[in-house]
Each structure stands twice: as C-alpha cells, then as structure tokens.
C-alpha cells in the first residue's frame, strides 16, 4: 500500500474577488465571487484555511431625542465572512426604553436586501436586548440596513454603550458605532440638532426655552389684558396640562371657562396665531385665591415653536407690585420656570410719564398719586375780586362712578367772601361749599370722567383782604378719597401740597411805581411850567375797587405862589381829567397841591401840568413828595424823582417874562430848580499875543435874566504882570456890533467905556435893555505887556438889576471863558531866543576867521513897537582891535576886544525865522580853547542864551568851535592841539632775506610850515634788526609824496665824467657821498661848494660847466672806492637830492624834513626799502617767527605833536603763501623764520633693482642766495653712479627725462649747470643755488634717476635742508642762515642722518605699473621681488 505522505497543498490558486461596485461604506463585491470581501492571496487554497470572522460595519442611530417619543432605531451591519443561515445576531445595551418585552418589526432600509437574509421581526427584551435570526447565508462585505421602533425614556438619558454579537460563528462581541453625525437642520425629532444627537436612545432634558408675560393696563380697578408667550425644546404631547401660577391680587372670580385669546403677531410678539390656536384649548381654569391658570394642549406642539395667548383680569382697587409668575407642565422631568417681563407696549388708553416704570409687568397696579396741584390768583390788589384758578393732576384716571370728593384746605379766614355755596367752573368739579372760618372748599368730581395725568382745572372767586400788611403765609392742601399706598401701608385718601404760583389772598402794597416831575425853565424870574407824571401799580379806582383815593404833591416852594389857601390850581395835559374837576387845591401852609382820583391811573402814565413864576433867587430843586389816602400804601410818602435832563433851548424866545431858557445844564429840568442870576455866555479873547504889541480885547456875554437900562457891567482882572500900562485911565472907545448899547456913564456918549489903568478894570452902563437869552458883544484896545505871561483870568459881573418881582439883583463876579490857545486875553508869548548858533571858518592860528551867527526869536521884533538890538559876549582871544564902527553884515555895531563884546542894531525880525549875521575876527596866534559865547536881545524880556557852537571839521577827524585855535602853544601855555589824524604803516613781505617795502601814510590837522623847522619822526624800536636802503644816513624814499621830503642835508647830485677811481661807474646819475672825516672845498666853472664833515654844507651855482673837488674818501652807490690823485666830477645844475629821509641806524628812527609846507587834512605817503634778515645773532623769536614786530610811533618837532603809536594797515601786504594779516604779517619788521613752504618727493617705480625717477618739488619763504647748498639726504638704498661722488644731471619733473634748462642749480663738484652732486656713500644729492631763488614762494621742480635696491624696503626717511644762505652784510658778514631741524649743523652741509627736515612723501599718486596702489609712489619704497605674471601654455 502506498505509504502516507504529505500531500502537496495548492499554493498557486488565487480566488476571484469579482469587481468593485462602489466606494466604502457602500462597497459591494460580486456575489458570485469565491471571496466576496477582501483580497485573495496565494495560500488561500490550502485545505481547511479559514478566514477570521469580523464585523466590518456595525453602525446604530436614532430618529429623535425627545422623551417618551416613539424612536426609530436604525442599524447598518456588514461582515468580513458570510453569516450562515440559522445564525443569531444579538444587539445589547438598549436600556431605558419604555417599550415592554415584545416582538419588534424589522424594516429593510435603502433596499439593502435585509429581508432576504434576515428575519423581518426580532425578539425584544426591555432589558435592552434585540435578537435577530439569519435566514440565508449573507454575502461577506455587503451592508444590510434595517430599523425598528422603541419608545424613548420619559426623562433624559445619556449615550449608551451598545454592542453586537452573533452565533454560532466565532464573531467577537464588539461595541457598535453610534451615529455621531449631526442630523440635518429641521429634521423632525430634533431641536437645533448637533453632532451626537443621533446616538441611539440618547434623550435630552425637556425644558421651556422661553416664557414671557406682560400686561396692557396698570390702572387700579381697570380690566387688564395679560399676555403669555412660551416655547419648549421638545414636542408637547396632546392633552399636556400647562399651569401658570402667581397671578395673585386680581378682582376676577374663579372660573373653569376663562376665555383665552390668541392675538395675531405684533410688535410685542411674532408668535404664530394659527399655531397657538391649533395647539392650545380656547378656555382655561382660573383660581382667584392663588392666582393660578391651568390650560391644556389639544394637539402636539412643535419643539421651538412659540405659542402666545392672553387672558383678561380685573386689576385690584389698590396698587400692588408686579407678580412673580411661573409656568410648569404635568410631564415628568419638566421643571417649572419663572416668567420674564417683556417690555411691551401698554394699551393706548394708558398714559405714562418718566416715573412710571415696569408697568408692563404682570398685575403691576399703579399707585394713585398727585402729580400736580397749583393755584393762581387773578388779582393781588387789595379790595379786589380775585379768581383762584386751581390746576391739579392725578396719575390715574377718575371715573364719574368712583364717587371721588376733592377738598381744598388752608385758605385762611381773612378773605372778605362770606361762607356759603360757591360756583366752581372748569368742567370737573361740582358746585362747592366755602367755609370761611375753616378756610376750606369741598366739591365732588362728578361732572365727567378724567384721564390719568390730565391737568384739570377748577375756578372760583374770593375777595382779597383790604390791608396788605395783615397777610399771613398759608399752606394749601388738596385731597381725594382714593386708595393708595402711604409708605408701606394702604390709605383711603391722598393729599398734596398745593403750589401757589402767587400767594393766595396776598395783596401787593399800593405804590407809586412811576412818579416824575420836571419844569420848562430854570432861569430866575422866568415864567415856568411844572409837569408831573404819575403811575401806580394798582388802579386806585374802578368798579372792582372799593376805596376813595386822594393824591397830594408837597414841597412846592421857591415860586411866587397861587394866592390864598384852597385856591384851585388849574391842571392841564392829558392826565388832568384823572383828578376831580381837572384841578387841585393849593395849601400855602404846606406848599402842596391835593387832588381826588376819579379814573384809574395804573394802566398808563398820567401826565398833567400847571404854571408858576420862578423866584429871582437861585435855589436847588426843593424836596417834592407824593402821598395818598383812602388805601394803605407801602410808604406814607414818596420822594418824587426829578427830571435830570438838560432843558431844550427856547428857540426864538427871549426875555424872562416869556420863559426864555438857553444853554441848559444837567438837572435844569428838576422842578423849581432855579439858576442864580449869571452870565451864561461870558467869552473874552484877543487878537495879538506878541509882547509889546497893540492888541484888541473882544467881550461877548449873555445873561439868564433881563438887564434893564441903568444896570452896570464891569470887566476886571486884566492883569499886567510886568507892571506895564495897557492904556491911559479914562474914557476909551468901544467897538463891535453892540458898542452903542453901552456908555462910560448914564450921561456919556454911547459906544464908550471907563478904563482904570491902576485896577485894570473896564466899566460900562447899560443904555438900552438887554434881554435874557440874547448875546451881546463889544471890543476895546490895549497895549500888550513887554514880557511873556499867561492869559489873565478876566472876570465879569453886574449890579443894579430890577426885573420881575425882585430888585437890586446882582450877577456875581465870575471868571470869563477865555478863547483857546493864543486867543486867550492878555496871553503874551514869552520872548525866547529859540536858535543861536555860531560857526567859524578856520581853526588855525593868526588866520582871518569869518564867524557866522544864526539867531531866531520866538516873537517878532520892531515893526514900530520898539527898536531892538543884539549883543554877543565872550568873543575873547581875537587880536582884532576894538572899534565903534564894526561891520556886521549891512549894519554897523561896536566891538570891544578886551571884553569880547559885539553890539549891533536889528531891523524888523519875523518870529520863528532864522537870521544870519557874519563878521570877521583875527584868530589868536597861540593855541586856544573855544570861548563860551552868549547872545542877548534888548527891549523885551529876553533871557540871555549861550550860543551853540557849530563844529568846523578839518582833517576828517575833529571839529573845532568858534575861535578855537589849534597849533603850537604860546609862551606860558602847556601842550599842543596839533595831532596826526591819520597814521598808517605796513610792510609788503615778512619773508626772511627778502626786500621789504615799508609804507607809511600820515595826515595832520594843522599846517606844518618849513619855517618852523618841522621834522616828522617815525620811531622803530631800536631792538629791531633793520637794513634800510640808504646812502650814508640818507634813507631812499619812494611813494607818491617822497619828493616832499629830504634827509640830513641837501646832497648835491654829481655825474662822474671819468674813471678817477676804481669803481665801476656807468655814465648815468649816481649818488656821490663823502664820508665825514674832515672838511674840504671844491670849485669849478659851475660854482663853489663846501664840504663840512663829509657833507655838502653850501654851494653856489655860478654857471654851467664842470666843478672839481678832491674828496677824502668816496662811497659810490654804497661801495667804498679808492680814488686816484684827482677826481673829476661835474655838478648837476642846481639839482637837490630829494626823496630822502634821515635814517639813524643806532635807534632805528626815520626823520622826514619837508621841503614845502605840509598842509592840514592832506595825506602824505612815502615808503622805505628794507632787506629782511635771514638770521639773527640771538636766534629766532620762535619756531615760525624770526623777528616779531614792535610798536612804531610817529611824532613831530618844530610844530610839536606828541609821539603816538601808528595804526597797522594790511593794504600794502603782498599775497604770498603762508602770509596773512590775521597773524600780524602786515606789521613792520615781522619776519618769518626760514622754512620750507613745500617739500614733496615721489618716485616712478617700486620694482626692485629698477631705474627709479625721484621727483622733487620744494619752495621756501627765504631768498636763497647764490651759492647756498640744497641737500636731499637719507635716500636709503638708492644706487647712483659707480663713482662715490659725481655730478648727476637734473631733469624736468613732467617726464623725468628732459634735462632742466632754467639754470637755477649747479653741481657742487664740477659747477655743472642744471645738475647736482651725488654722494653715493651718504645717499644724498647736493645742489648749489646758481642764482638767488626768488622771494615769491615759487615752487622749484626737478627729477633725477637712481637705481632701486633689490631687497624690499619701506619708504626712505628723506630729508632736505639748505645751508649757507647769505643775508645782508649789514646784519654781519659771517651771519648766515640755514633751513634745518638739527641744532648741531654748521654753515656747510654735512651728511648727518637727521640733518634737515623730513620731506612729504607722495602717498596719493597711483603709479602706472601693474599692481600699484596709493602709497607706492612713496620715495624708495621697493616691493619684494615676485612674478607679476606666471602663466604657462
């Protein structure tokens, strides 16, 4: 038999899986496939290989979260392997359901084919288990969906842990997946669904989403509509009971059929009327005692749907606060909730104000309260009917049926109205009853119903008390019998304090609120009209007025009276009829008028007038008072205000009897104010205000009272302060338009007056009557005082006046009104010399000097009034002799030299006009200070005046006053007034060794005559080193004024004819100077001349030709010459050597002698030439300055001018490098230390071992003399020629190859031009100055070749110096200069390493070689040897 052997398993077969029918979770494989879910792999065909069973889909969900609702549970399952027929699927964990044990119908969902494979019913256990039978093998991977219905728990329940299992296959028990997706919005069974709401048997807590309540009427006792609105988060089942509790206090009785209304949506609520009406029953049960309403649903409500209804209840009669209302249901797990008050609109009939709040709250009842109670009386007049207007307001309505009674109390018992019934108007209150003793009015509100806050009125009339002073303050109250709350208690009535807009039954005191009195004329004895204006604050008469009133005006004094007592004084004017018979009774004893009032005088101003005649005596307005009887006034008497205005002129009316009135003043309108007799117009003026002149006095006056013929007018106080006469005493003539109305006496001719020159009074008599208010004028003539004076206080008075009821009336003396300014009477301008100036024409001694006087007077002189003259005093110092016939302009006066007084007459002089008078005096021969001169004018009261000297300016500096003499002092005088007004000095260059031009310019203020042996000395400090260009001691001068001066003597100019001595003398003019060793003479055809101490002392030119002389020692142009035995010379004809100044070398002083007179105010400018030093024995003053400038002074002898320091000008300073006036280089003999201005060196190549061109530029500030050595040393590493010392050609700087050709330098070794000597051991180049290098700071440029060392090196420390600089021989023949930094150097160059100064290297140029940078042009900088290019190809 075959042995058992391992069978070969099928490892290659892969079962078919069909095709995919869709995406997960709806993946469906072909049901005909061997493997209908998942993937098949090799090895699946192994015998007995079994897949592990698993739940691929196990989802469960529900249709509602509402409690006690039927809930559709939805399940979806799928397995990884088929469930075999007969298997049982068990779902566990569905706890809490209200569904009892039973068989549940299973419904296929979404045509999943569930019914073909599973039973259509399942076994349900209320413990939470559902068993389902498999009726046919299922297809692996296929989803089967089914549903069944359970009843939800009645209370909330959270998500459950639900599992699924099957048998007999070995499926694991696994939790099912709850549906966590949010149900669709609006899905039935959910209220505002959220994720998780679809979990099976998940039940939410039932609650009210909202419960609002509001009312429509808060009035007590009124029907009130209460509105309710609510919504729940679950559906309420049909027949659910709803209970609204807390509606306590209503007057509505119990009812099992209380109607419910369902209003349409409005502004208070948008709840659906249809939904509410279809859901809720139309009636409810009402329980009054506990305020509970029970209603029932008649259909299932929808979760979230708002339902609204309202009921009508009657409010309580008394006020109460809002009720706390709640709502609940009979469903389990439902909680009752309090209502929220909705701020809804009240019924339109309800009136509210700002204090009425929360009246929409349920069963809130407004507390009745007074909001307003006022009373306004119609009259405050005593004895007058007063209608009292009562206005009141309640915050609640009052209905006719309410039986409300209103009581007004506190009116007091002082009214004149007796007790009894009283008519009340206004339309609300009924007829009332007035109780006088109690002060109470009671009335019923039964005429009509009123609204809340309606302002109600009630009017009734009481008679005011007769005596205002008896009033006592009272408090009024109004009360009504309505229920309200007082504090925490209810009250049956409420009262309120009545506001009295005006105090009830209080009367105003009668007063005169207008009393005014005035008059027409205030003049004495004038006819006058008194006008009175009256107005009271009360009528004082009329049908409602119950008193008889009289008015009394008292204090009417100062007039002529009205006759006997009780005489009737007629009144006139618009208000006269307000008094009985349009008149008033006069009482002489009390000076008063009394009138009885017969018409009201309060509504308008009552004006009446009466006539009087003023007295002749001035008086103020008397005290006038008003009083009244018949009614008590506030005051017993009233001072009557008076018209303070100015009375209007009575145009065209003149005379006292006609009531004339002019020129009124304030308060003239005050009744019976009477002016004193006076001249209201009393003007006085003059025509002329000049002293001593003939003058006309003008008088104008107007009186306020008539002046009858015989009255006397006097003009006085016409003062003459200087005691002069105005006119002779006696009769003088009058002029003017009214002159004939007056005379000097009642028997004299008209047009005259009487003048008393002693008392200075003019008296005139009135010859024809003068009317009050008319203006009269006249004139008279007087001579003015001789002296100035202020205007006289002229006065006017009158006496002997009889007019009206008075006689012997006086017009007191009063100062007259003077015209303004110069027209004031006897105002005389003070004579003043307003201008007095004097100027002269020259300040020089002994000169003829013209003096000009300008004078001006403030007043006219002459013109026939008097003969003036002018006196000048103080003209001292002149040499002009005294004379009685001294010419002054066109006049002849007298001159006294001893006193310096000049007097001359004047013709007519106009005021304020300048008059000029000229005269000539001879100046003093000596220096003189200006005298003080005074001027005086005669006849009038002039004060002497010091004459203002007008400066006369000379030399642009100082001014001189009249008769001031400048110049030398005379015998006994000290000092001089001569001075230099300009004294400038400066130099052209501070460069050492250079020719320097020192220029000086001066001006004097006086003449410097030759006859005075004038010498101008310029003193340079003797410590200065100065080599002045000179011949012997004669400095050579240049400049525009050099020919004006000469030196020590007038040296004769000679022309050399032959070579008589061994000096090289060309045939031109030369200066021949003889050294002072003795005396000599010479003579010839030209003349005779004498030599004294080597100087030509005298000469006489006789004719042309040659002169011969044998001088001892001859100096030609500064060079001492030996001479032959004889010297032939020819004298230039009469030529004198000018342009010289004497130079004293021992003290550095220059003396200038003028050949001609030096004029004042003229500038003289000359120059001298100096050779600046290059070195000083004591060394330089500082590193930069060889010699500092010192002060230079200038003075004069002959005409003494004291020495003073000159001013230093930069005008002559040359523009040179390193030179600046800011550092004082313009000051004479400031000399710089020798130094290099420029000292640069560069190279052409840094290549090692290469030929290198060194380029040098230098300049100095010193004159480098011929033969000076210039050394450039420390050229470290440079290799020159083979020989250790040889000449090296110098080339131009530009190309380094072209030889120099300017011959400025030569070599030291071979004196080769344009070359230097190279010292190879010392690595130095030495050159000699071939010609002197200039003094302009000119740069010198050259180059020379060297060979670079092979080894690299940095820049060489190259130095440059110059030695052997020769200066002027005057400074010392051996004194030389050098430019060096080494103190040990001698005058010749030595190759010392630190000799000279370091040169400035070229660090900026970038050489034109490959790789060069800035700094490679630094002299003898050598690169390391290297390949610059190292490429191979």
In words, what does this structure look like?
The protein has 1433 residues and is an all-beta fold. 1% of the residues lie in helices and 37% in strands. The chain is built from 2 helices and 100 strands. The strands form 19 sheets. Strands 65, 66, 67, 68, 69, 70, 71, 81, 82, 83, 85, 86 and 87 form a 13-stranded mixed beta sheet that branches. The protein has a 9-stranded mixed beta sheet with strand order 25-26-27-24-29-32-22-23-28, with no helix packed on it. Strands 91, 92, 93, 94, 95, 97, 98 and 99 form an 8-stranded antiparallel beta sheet that branches. The longest helix is centred in the N-terminal third of the chain and has 7 residues, at 273-279.
């Amino acid at each position: 038999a075959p042995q058992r052997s391992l069978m070969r398993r099928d490892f290659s077969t892969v079962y078919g899986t069909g095709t995919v029918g869709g995406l997960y979770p709806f993946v469906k494989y072909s049901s005909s496939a061997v493997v209908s879910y998942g993937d098949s792999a090799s090895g699946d065909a192994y015998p007995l290989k079994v897949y592990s069973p698993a739940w691929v889909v196990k989802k469960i969900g529900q249709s509602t979260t509402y409690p006690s609702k039927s809930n559709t549970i939805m399940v979806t399952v799928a397995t990884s392997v088929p469930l075999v027929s007969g298997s049982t699927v068990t779902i566990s964990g569905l706890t809490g359901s209200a569904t009892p044990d039973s068989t549940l119908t299973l419904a296929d969902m979404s045509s999943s084919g569930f019914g073909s494979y599973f039973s259509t019913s399942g076994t349900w256990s209320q413990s939470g288990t559902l068993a389902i039978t498999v009726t046919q093998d299922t297809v692996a991977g296929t989803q089967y969906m089914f549903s069944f219905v359970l009843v939800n728990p009645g209370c909330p329940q959270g998500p459950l842990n639900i599992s699924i299992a099957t048998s007999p296959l070995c499926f694991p028990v696994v939790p099912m997946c709850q549906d966590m997706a949010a149900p669709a919005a609006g899905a039935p069974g959910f209220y505002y669904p959220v994720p998780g709401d679809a979990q099976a048997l998940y039940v939410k807590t039932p609650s009210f989403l909202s419960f609002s309540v509001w009312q429509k009427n808060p009035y007590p006792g009124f029907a009130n509509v209460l509105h309710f609105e609510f919504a729940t988060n679950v559906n309420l089942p049909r027949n659910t009971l709803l209970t609204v509790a807390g509606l306590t206090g209503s007057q509505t009785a119990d009812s099992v059929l209380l109607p419910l209304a369902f209003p349409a949506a409005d502004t208070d609520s948008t709840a659906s009327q249809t939904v509410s009406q279809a859901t809720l029953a139309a009636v409810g049960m009402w329980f009054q005692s506990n305020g509970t309403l029970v209603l029932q649903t008649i259909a299932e409500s929808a979760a979230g749907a708002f339902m609204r209804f309202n009921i009508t209840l009657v409010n309580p009669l008394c006020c109460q606060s809002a009720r706390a209302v709640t709502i609940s249901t009979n469903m389990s797990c439902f909680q009752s909730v309090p209502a929220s008050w909705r701020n809804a609109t009240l019924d339109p009939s309800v009136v509210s104000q700002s204090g009425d709040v929360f009246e929409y709250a349920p069963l809130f009842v407004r507390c009745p309260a007074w909001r307003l109670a006022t009373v306004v009386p119609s009259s405050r007049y005593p004895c007058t009917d007063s209608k009292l207007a009562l206005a009141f307001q309640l915050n609640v309505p009052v209905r006719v049926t309410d039986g409300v009674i209103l009581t007004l109390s506190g009116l007091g018992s002082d009214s004149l109205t007796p007790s009894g019934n009283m008519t009340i108007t206004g339309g609300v209150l009924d007829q009332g009853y007035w109780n006088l003793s109690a002060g109470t009015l009671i009335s019923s509100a039964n005429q009509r119903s009123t609204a809340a806050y309606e302002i109600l009125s009630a009017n009734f009339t009481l008679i005011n008390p007769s005596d205002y002073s008896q009033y006592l303050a009272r408090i009024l109250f109004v009360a009504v019998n309505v229920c309200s709350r007082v504090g925490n208690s209810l009250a049956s009535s409420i009262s309120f304090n009545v506001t009295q807009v005006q105090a009830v039954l209080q009367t105003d005191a009668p007063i005169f609120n207008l009393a005014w009195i005035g008059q027409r004329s205030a003049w004495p004895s004038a006819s006058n009209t008194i006008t009175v204006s009256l107005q009271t604050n009360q009528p004082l008469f009329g049908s409602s007025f119950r008193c008889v009133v009289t008015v009394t005006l008292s204090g009417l004094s100062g007039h002529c009276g009205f006759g006997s007592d009780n005489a009737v004084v007629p009144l006139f004017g618009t208000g006269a009829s307000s008094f009985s018979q349009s008149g008033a009774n006069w009482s002489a004893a009390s000076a008063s008028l009394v009138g009885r009032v017969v018409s009201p005088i309060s509504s308008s101003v009552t004006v009446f007038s009466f006539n009087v005649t003023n007295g002749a005596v001035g008086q103020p307005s008397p005290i006038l008072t008003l009083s009244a009887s018949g009614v008590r006034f506030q005051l017993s008497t009233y001072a009557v205000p008076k018209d303070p205005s100015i009375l209007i002129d009575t145009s065209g009316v003149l005379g006292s009897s006609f009531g004339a009135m002019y020129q009124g003043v304030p308060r003239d309108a005050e009744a019976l104010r009477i002016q004193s007799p006076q001249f209201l117009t009393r003007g006085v003026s003059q025509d002329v205000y000049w002293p001593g002149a003939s003058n006309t006095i003008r008088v104008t006056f107007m009186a306020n009272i008539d002046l009858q013929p015989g009255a006397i007018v006097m003009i006085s106080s016409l003062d003459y302060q200087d005691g002069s006469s105005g006119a002779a005493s006696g009769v003088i003539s009058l002029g003017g338009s009214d002159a004939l109305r007056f005379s000097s006496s009642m028997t004299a001719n008209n047009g005259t007056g009487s003048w008393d020159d002693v008392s200075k009074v003019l008296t005139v008599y009135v010859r024809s009557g003068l009317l009050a208010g008319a203006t009269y004028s006249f004139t008279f003539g007087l001579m003015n005082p001789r002296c100035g004076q202020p205007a006289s206080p002229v006065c006017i008075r009158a006496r002997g006046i009889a007019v009206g009821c008075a006689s012997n009336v006086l017009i007191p003396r009063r100062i007259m009104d003077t015209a303004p300014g110069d027209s004031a009477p006897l105002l005389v301008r003070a004579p003043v010399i307003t201008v007095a100036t004097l100027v002269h024409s020259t300040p020089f001694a002994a000169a003829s000097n013209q003096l000009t006087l300008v004078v001006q007077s403030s007043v006219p002189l002459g013109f026939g009034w008097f003969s003036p003259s002018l006196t000048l005093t103080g003209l001292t110092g002149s040499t002009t002799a005294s004379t009685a016939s001294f010419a002054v302009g066109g006049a002849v006066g007298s001159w006294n030299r001893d006193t310096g007084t000049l007097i001359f007459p004047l013709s007519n002089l106009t005021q304020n006009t300048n008059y000029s008078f000229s005269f000539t005096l001879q100046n003093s021969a000596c220096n003189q200070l200006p005298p003080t001169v005074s001027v005086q004018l005669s006849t009038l009261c002039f004060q002497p005046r010091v004459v203002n000297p007008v400066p006369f300016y000379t030399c642009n500096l100082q001014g001189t006053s009249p008769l001031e003499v400048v110049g030398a002092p005379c015998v006994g005088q000290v000092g001089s007034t001569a001075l230099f007004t300009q004294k400038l000095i400066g130099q052209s260059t501070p460069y050492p060794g250079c020719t320097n031009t020192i220029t000086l310019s001066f001006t004097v203020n006086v003449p410097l005559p030759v006859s005075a042996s004038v010498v101008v000395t310029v003193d340079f400090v003797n410590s200065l080193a100065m080599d002045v260009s000179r011949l012997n001691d004669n400095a050579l001068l240049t400049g525009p004024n050099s020919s004006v001066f000469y030196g020590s003597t007038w040296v004769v100019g000679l022309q050399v004819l032959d070579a008589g001595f061994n000096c090289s003398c060309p045939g031109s003019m030369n200066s021949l100077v003889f050294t002072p060793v003795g005396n000599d003479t010479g003579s010839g055809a030209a003349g005779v001349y004498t030599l004294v101490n080597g100087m030509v002392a005298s000469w006489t030119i006789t004719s042309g030709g040659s002169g011969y002389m044998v001088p001892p020692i001859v100096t030609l142009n500064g060079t001492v010459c030996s001479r032959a035995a004889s010297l032939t010379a020819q004298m230039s004809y009469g030529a004198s050597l000018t342009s010289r100044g004497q130079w004293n070398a021992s003290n550095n002083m220059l003396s200038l002698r003028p050949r001609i007179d030096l004029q004042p105010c003229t500038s003289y400018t000359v120059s001298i030439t100096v050779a600046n030093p290059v070195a000083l024995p004591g060394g330089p003053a500082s590193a930069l300055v060889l010699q500092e400038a010192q002060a230079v002074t200038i003075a004069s002898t002959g005409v003494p001018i004291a020495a003073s320091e000159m001013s230093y000008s930069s005008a002559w300073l040359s523009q040179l490098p390193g030179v600046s006036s800011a550092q004082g280089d313009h000051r004479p003999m400031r000399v710089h230390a020798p130094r290099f201005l420029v000292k640069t060196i560069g190279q052409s190549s840094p290549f090692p071992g290469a030929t290198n061109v060194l380029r040098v530029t230098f300049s100095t500030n010193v004159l480098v003399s011929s033969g000076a050595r210039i050394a450039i040393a420390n050229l470290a590493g440079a290799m020159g020629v083979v020989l250790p010392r040889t000449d090296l050609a110098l080339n131009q700087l530009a190309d380094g190859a072209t030889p120099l050709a300017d011959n400025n330098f030569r070599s030291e070794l071979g004196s080769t031009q344009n070359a230097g000597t190279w010292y190879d051991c010392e690595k130095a180049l030495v050159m000699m100055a071939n010609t002197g290098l200039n003094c302009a700071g000119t740069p010198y440029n050259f180059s020379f070749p060297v060979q670079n060392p092979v080894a690299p090196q940095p820049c060489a420390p190259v130095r440059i110096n110059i030695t052997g600089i020769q200066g002027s021989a005057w400074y010392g023949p051996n004194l030389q200069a050098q430019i060096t930094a080494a103190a040990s150097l001698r005058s010749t160059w030595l190759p010392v390493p630190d000799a000279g100064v370091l040169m400035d290297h070229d660090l900026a140029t970038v050489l034109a070689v490959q790789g060069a940078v800035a700094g490679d042009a630094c002299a003898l900088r050598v690169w390391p040897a290297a390949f610059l290019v190292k490429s191979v190809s």
